[in-house]
Amino acid sequence: MDGTPDAMQKLTIGKALNLGLRAAMEKDDKVIILGEDVGKLGGVFRITDGLQKDFGEQRVLDTPLAESGIIGTAVGLAVRGFRPVCEIQFEGFIFPGFDQISSQLAKLHYRSQGRIKVPVVVRVPFGGGIGAVEHHSESPESLFAHIAGLKVVSCSNPADAYWMIQQAIACDDPVLFFEPKRLYHNGQVKSEVDTATPPGPLFASRVLRQGTDATLVSYGPSVKVCLDAAAAAEDEGRSLEVIDLRTLSPLDLGPVFESVRRTGRLVVVSEAPSESSIASEIAARVQQECFYSLESPVLRATGFDTPYPPSKLEEHYLPDLDRVLHTVDRAMGW
């Protein structure tokens, strides 16, 4: 693509996910995709575009509008040896399937003392920034990270999208795969992807930018905001380190601890409300592990503890570059 060799392709996150799903289906005929409009339509965001045409209706299934039924069917398929990939159209629609996810999907392996594996991936477009109403823009990832038995991950760039979806499908544990919907087709994050070499393991965070003055930690759609903030801060003579968590359960905080011990300051950024969140868990753990290295309290730049607002107000709700930099200023001025 774009004149690059086959192993290096310049992709958007949406296209990378599509190719990652395709690669997983080509490697293993037990991989099945199911969800609302994933077949003929190719998904609301066109992530599964062309897959039913190429793999057939037996492997890419259009389902009724019933998230509980989608998850329940996937559990049954997994018990019978398949590797189902469920698509939830929007994160706000996942709650009719919450009982199946928390009571069945997350517990069968433990309940059966390891005899039953449930290799199910639940793909969840999440976050705001697309001008949609409530139930189409939320960030409920902390609810699922709290459930023992589930793995929870989120990609933020095309390379991770391509490889992480394949790694999640290959995992024998159930994985909630949160995808930043506003970055699906964003040309600003379009980049070259090495489709021949995985960038690293699935359940590991990664330092994306080195810095010395403060650490920014984020995941999913807010990673781009942090990278933009770090670039803007550099123009002001301030050096910010940026870490992409990638995995929310289990949390890989080793690189975060190492970074904070050097910079002395931490700002956690996410679109989710701050109370009882991934951000608050990170703040607690860093305070516990890095107390004597901290030069200021751990601060958070997040969404607000309110229902998601109408679209004309979402730019005030979502943490943007200015709010992140303001929070960094507070940390530096402590």
From TrEMBL:
<dbReference type="InterPro" id="IPR033248">
    <property type="entry name" value="Transketolase_C"/>
</dbReference>
<keyword id="KW-0786">Thiamine pyrophosphate</keyword>
<dbReference type="Pfam" id="PF02780">
    <property type="entry name" value="Transketolase_C"/>
</dbReference>
<dbReference type="InterPro" id="IPR009014">
    <property type="entry name" value="Transketo_C/PFOR_II"/>
</dbReference>
<protein>
    <submittedName>
        <fullName>Alpha-ketoacid dehydrogenase subunit beta</fullName>
    </submittedName>
</protein>
<dbReference type="InterPro" id="IPR005475">
    <property type="entry name" value="Transketolase-like_Pyr-bd"/>
</dbReference>
<dbReference type="InterPro" id="IPR029061">
    <property type="entry name" value="THDP-binding"/>
</dbReference>
<dbReference type="Pfam" id="PF02779">
    <property type="entry name" value="Transket_pyr"/>
</dbReference>
<feature type="domain" description="Transketolase-like pyrimidine-binding">
    <location>
        <begin position="11"/>
        <end position="186"/>
    </location>
</feature>
<keyword id="KW-0560">Oxidoreductase</keyword>
